[in-house]
Fold:
Amino acid sequence: MPTSRLEIDLGAIDRNIARLKAIAAPADPKQQVGFCAVIKQDGYGLGSARLAKHLAAAGVDLVAVYSLDEARALVDVPITTPVLVLMPVWSLDRADPLYRLAVSGRLHLTLHSPAQATELAAVAARTGVDFPVHVQVDTGLSRGGSLPDEATKMVEFASSAQRLRLAGLMTHFSAPSTDEPFTKEQARLFRSWIERIKPVLTNLASKPGQARPPVWVHAANTAATLRSASLHATMIRVGQGVLGYGAETLEGQTHVEFAEAALQLEACARWTSRIVHVQDVPAGWPVGYDRTWTAPRPSRVGLVPVGYANGYPRALSNAAMVRLTGQQYDQARTSAPGEAAPAPVRLGVQGVFAPVVGRVSMDQITLDLTGLPEDLTRPGCEVELVGADPAAPNYLPALARAAGTITHEMLCRVSASVERHYVTTQAPIERAPGDPEPPRPIQLPKPETTPAARRSAAVG
Structure:
């Protein structure tokens, strides 16, 4: 039996995609807003191959990864959805497994500089492959891409090079969740650059031959997608929102157009382990390295076989709560493809919370179980380290805040040794009749203008 497992709710991901598509739907039904799902770093640790297959079935237009290595993990996944590589790529060999993806036209690359664009054109000519490319303009993040003048040269070059196909124009906002004025300035710079290169795009569209796929214009990550329709352009590029996170980054911000919809996103990740040992200690007895916690009274201490080597942050020592669900850890939670999904663990008041006490060790944490029901605290009882309830203290964004980090990092830190299990729920997990509805910790303001008014100033 593994010491812990990470459960990924594919049903929640489906519902999140539907909500995000509804947010991005243009006021004019003749227009189209594409959907790029970002699954960098093995899908933020949730399994990029499994996620890519599911995202393709959900109808996303593009999946994005950072590196060629991450793209190679998707070569044998039975999907036809194109894969965008975000890092600067300078070469590709026919012996590379990605050559198959490239030959099919499904490998999209990002142009960051004129020199890289020239090199890729040479690679395309040498390998006989046409590369769809996305030109990245730097509007103030300075994490790749080129300033507008050089980015214009890349657009002109990609439009005329024999084996490069201009497939996208992109930028990236540096602080859409916390700095609305600078985000607006970046959007203005991006919009201005798009206007400058429109003659090139017009000439490209008028070239004779077969109908060309659209040139996607994309800038909005999860926070920007939730903040304003004016940032959506013709494609949104969403990572954590697909997984049900992102609303917490906008907490306390003003002018959040899709605040209500943001709160409907469902967290897809749940991390569980079990109690493996229980012992009673006298008052004044130290627990853990460096004696950072001493029993204030005769106490019952439980041992859980998870620690910082598994990705549970040491910064959560004496600063986190876990949920004792009342379930046995060996109870089935995951269904194989085609099987009916097991009943989800109910949110709300089921179970009780116990504090993490003492230092988080490499592969163990200790809990204060004093006074808690014995049937929840025996060896073998399930411990929910990370839950999906936004009102609970073990909700992933709440734990990230307590650890002084962000949700992305918490997910990526979960060790590959932790088993990934996939569950498909058919509806949001509901509270049982009579359960109190706790207040949500994330409070977002209502928009001050209508979506239609904001769409009138849309990027692109």
